[in-house]
Write a structure and sequence with these properties.
2 copies of one chain form a homodimer.
Chain A lengths: L10 H17 L5 H11 L6 H9 L7 H26 L3 E2 L2 E2 L1 H5 L1 H22 L3 H23 L8 H26 L4 H34 L5 H4 L5 H7 L3 H8 L7 H13 L2 H21 L5 H13 L5
Antiparallel strand pairs in A: 1-2
Helix pairs in contact in A: 1-3, 1-4, 2-6, 3-4, 3-8, 4-6, 4-8, 7-8, 8-9, 9-14, 11-13, 11-14, 12-13, 14-15
Chain lengths: 325, 325
């Protein structure tokens, strides 16, 4: 079991995140050895565990049963892992979290069932630990919104007319809703009012969108500076993100010859697109957009009750959304 | 919308099954057109709808809110369809319900997400209409058991030493548990006691296992008589079912040269295996096993309260488990 080093600064949270991993391990009870190994490898590969972390943090505004909150944090991490595994099947990705992806190592069949199995583990944990049906209903709505985000993204692949609003809707779905579910569950299930939990949910949504925006920006800034050439696997697969979309609308005719090549795009083509994105202000504009969401989240966090966890939320969110890699 | 002609004999049930289909249609709200079309094509392809039918029948021992029961019946059909779609991805099946499968028509990506999307619709329906958390917890357990059945089947592919108990465990999982969930939900959610609902669950499990056994027997008897030659796609893919398993243990050395060819098995090899299965009594023994499960289910049905629905359950189960095609 390996916890991401970013949690060393928060030892109490780190201990609980370790308990989340242990509980997930205990819930992977299938006798199918490849599937079990595949899942456990991935769970223990040192992912950031941001979603369970936010769930646990938002549960600290009340004194509450920690085992229950750890189980719900495990449920959101399980759901997140299930979506990653199925995304890798669809993108035919060979790597995930620095390791070969499940579908690369064990094949597509194992990956499809491993994802499905994790969905059922998530379902079992949510149903087993939620305090009432409302909470489970809320989970169902979030899960549908997450899938709708994925599906919307799939249906706009290679669409050069994609608008920034369409992109933001997709990101709100696929990333935002899972963060929103995490903060909602943490707040609501620890005994806060529904009003407080809805506020937590909105904060989670904004953090999630800002986080995804930043991830998409780093795909441009980190890849060209650190590796010397743009990789841009998503772009080649037709998944256009904020920096490209915001630059593309300024000069569609400049991008068209490259993007229309789709999977046949060469490394030089990708470099040219990378340069066009910079030339047309795509990165700066996307950074401004990310800053809007970050500021909205941080302002709302500042209005939370004045307890030690508020400072942690503020510090974590600030460093997460201002990271350079 | 097309309901299987078998329901013409049961007009009240047929009407409710049509409402189940309408409700599923209304719940497929994704904007992703290929995924929506793919799911609706499959839902409306005239599948037997046995699981929702049993759910609805077991809800008729009490006067209850029909809309709620239709929603729960829709949940089980949605879950069943999700598992079929993912099974087709894994088996790379080109046909399903007499139509091209989703993965053949729309590709693997659409099929993976279409299945995932249906899982979330199922989750939403269960959480939205279940009467309490216990029921949702029960759903989670069934879903895990279904996946464990699929996973166990996957892990014994091409295993010539597979025992009939292993096979029955897998069938109890992948088919039995979904029937058991259907009858449990129908009984419990319509206001019967937990004891009554557990009995319904056991009946559902036995019906499900008998149904799968019969399906596996018909793969041998129907294919050779109706199409002139054995197809045996499952066997070539290493999924060994009761007739083969029961014959194989009598004369493993006779089967080995053919089965060891795996996917390279020719049509003549498949014919030879088909004949060996018959020669070693595989079909007769599997029929005896199916009869055991059928009789157990029918005997338990006879002990249910003497209401009109009992006669329907008895007649339906009897004809379903004695069908010739």
């Amino acid at each position: 079991m390996k916890i991401h080093p970013m949690w060393r600064e928060y030892p109490a949270l780190q201990t609980e995140l370790e308990q989340v991993l242990t509980l997930i391990d205990q819930n992977i009870t299938t006798n199918n050895v490849p599937v079990r190994d595949a899942i456990l490898d991935m769970i223990n590969a040192g992912g950031k565990m941001l979603r369970p972390a936010y769930c646990l943090l938002f549960s600290q505004f009340k004194q509450t049963d920690r085992h229950k909150m750890i189980a719900l944090a495990a449920a959101v991490e399980t759901l997140h892992t299930a979506t990653l595994i199925h995304d890798d099947v669809i993108d035919e990705s060979d790597m995930r979290r620095g390791l070969p992806s499940i579908q690369a190592t064990f094949g597509k069949d194992t990956a499809v069932y491993a994802g499905d199995y994790l969905f059922t583990v998530c379902f079992k944990l949510l149903a087993g630990y939620a305090s009432d049906l409302r909470s489970v209903q809320q989970d169902g709505k979030h899960m549908e919104a997450i899938l709708n985000g994925e599906l919307a993204q799939m249906s706009t692949r290679y669409n050069m007319a994609i608008t920034i609003d369409q992109y933001l809707n997709q990101v709100s779905g696929k990333t935002g809703q899972l963060f929103a579910l995490s903060t909602f569950l943490g707040a609501y299930e620890s005994g806060n009012s529904l009003r407080f939990a809805r506020n937590a949910q909105t904060i989670g949504l904004n953090i999630g969108v800002a986080f995804q925006l930043l991830d998409d920006i780093l795909d441009y800034t980190a890849s060209s500076s650190q590796f010397g050439k743009p990789v841009q696997e998503d772009m080649r697969q037709g998944v256009y993100s904020a920096p490209l979309i915001l630059a593309l609308r300024e000069a569609p005719e400049a991008f068209a010859p490259y993007l229309s090549k789709r999977l046949k795009m060469t490394d030089d083509d990708a470099k040219a697109v990378d340069q066009l994105v910079r030339d047309h202000g795509g990165i700066v504009k996307a950074q401004e957009l990310a800053k809007d969401y970050t500021d909205t989240a941080l302002t709302a966090i500042e209005k939370l009750p004045d307890m030690p966890v508020r400072a942690i939320l503020s510090q974590l969110t600030s460093s997460l959304l201002n990271r350079q890699s």
